[in-house]
């Protein structure tokens, strides 16, 4: 049986999908890059916010249209959206052949004739060289935990994914070895709250221990940390984590807002003063540090004064990379009950204003990179152009750097380049011999 998998949402979903593909292959199925020749089509959905839910539903309906031309096609939908709305989706979209919450593959055993030599593998344990179908081989996402305990007022993840649960270090080192065996030179640590790693196991953070172990892999050149909740960050924690060999000075710290009143309503567990201290410490002690953050615009009760405070903060303490999204009211969350709500048009106006400011800041900061030399990881090579990233850019969410094809470089190579031009969202470079 040939199958194809569509993975929606965040990199954490991508990791789950990669493992599931390996699980199904171990059960005798054959992965196909082509939907048209697949007999089984799986969709790993996202249910985080409104836009993500709409994308997932849209993809489901698009795929179901294919069944009209190919009645033998079986469609399976699973993941966060299904977890949140299982009964509704099962009742209202009966055309879906199977719906599961968090699908492991074993559910298919009843109607899959497995080869006698097929090996049983837990989908949470597999991430090997033969199953990197969704990510390029030269970098790998390492999901170090499931779920979340923070209970931020706006977030439905704890309701969907359950409490925070760290994966054992020995399991993660096995996965790291598998990623390395498949070609990874850059390892990106992800979780809903990376800084919380290990506290459910040892009542203290085991993140430094894990990173030190990962840094011993000779093939790994870059280690990137993402989703560092500021609540558990301090100057001393930052110094400990980012002094470990191979850890990039890339600080992904989602602040969400700076108004103390809103931070309290959001249940973020931090204050504006704490956020200021973290940023100041990074700027003072990591001269090459790149700070990325995310902002929520229009949280219930946000006033123009709150927004102006946010704008002022960003002007005084500019971020190198910033993403923002309008607040989405999610049922089952505390914030859904908070009033007054910010009108949609006001959220849009504030979002536009913030991103206009960030565009100017990013352009100014990126212009300062012109003339400087960096090490670049090559992501892809086209006929005339090489596409890559500096240490300050995470795949798919940050800047890309392009330069003329030298006819020698290939994906996964590290090359030295000099930045020749820059704007808000892209860099241009030339290779330095």
Q: Roughly how many Å apart are the termini?
A: 49 Å
Number of strands: 18
Mean pLDDT: 92
The Cα radius of gyration reads 22 Å
Name of the top-level CATH class of the largest domain: Alpha Beta
Characterization of the model:
The chain is of the alpha/beta class and 433 residues long. It has three domains: 2-108, Rossmann fold (3-Layer(aba) Sandwich); 131-367, Alpha-Beta Horseshoe (pyruvate-formate lyase- activating enzyme), CATH 3.80.30; 373-431, OB fold (Dihydrolipoamide Acetyltransferase, E2P) (Beta Barrel), CATH 2.40.50. It has helices at 11-26, 50-69, 80-84, 86-92, 157-161, 169-181, 199-202, 207-214, 235-242, 260-265, 272-285, 304-316, 344-367, and strands spanning 2-7, 30-31, 40-45, 74-79, 98-99, 139-143, 145-146, 165-166, 186-190, 222-225, 250-252, 290-297, 321-326, 373-381, 385-389, 400-404, 414-422, 426-431. The strands form five sheets. It has a five-stranded parallel beta sheet, sandwiched between helices. It has a five-stranded mixed beta barrel with strand order 14-15-16-18-17. It has a three-stranded parallel beta sheet with strand order 6-9-10. Strand 12 (290-297), helix 12 and strand 13 form a beta-alpha-beta unit. Helix 12 (304-316) runs parallel beside helix 13. The longest helix has 24 residues, at 344-367. The radius of gyration is 22 Å and the shape is globular. The chain starts with a strand and ends with a strand.
